[in-house]
Design goal:
3 helices, 3 strands
């Protein structure tokens, strides 16, 4: 099966989105809740993670939330990547089916 230029464009778009998500991933903060569990905080550039002051602005009153550490939220990132891969595959297969899978 030969891929159409639309299928190649959709795959390229999916790859660009995944790379972009890798450079602008979701972050989580430890100790952001009174029970000390992780809390989702924001998306931020990979080489410049959100700072505690920025996180406090999202979190509410500073006396309620204390941020001990900020790290990548890999579970959210994997979910985002999975959604992009599934959407890209669905569109590529749909375009192929609409064109009758011509050789």
């Amino acid at each position: 099966m030969k891929m159409t230029r639309w299928q190649r464009a959709v795959i390229l778009t999916g790859v660009v989105l995944i790379v972009g998500m890798g450079f602008y991933p979701p972050w989580k903060m430890e100790g952001g809740r009174p029970d000390g569990k992780f809390r989702c905080c924001a998306h931020g550039f990979l080489f410049a993670p959100p700072q505690a002051a920025t996180v406090a602005a999202y979190s509410g009153p500073p006396k309620t939330w204390s941020c001990r550490a900020i790290g990548l939220d890999l579970s959210r990132l994997l979910v985002e990547w999975t959604v992009v891969v599934l959407a890209t595959a669905t569109v590529v297969v749909g375009i192929g089916a609409a064109n009758g899978w011509k050789d």
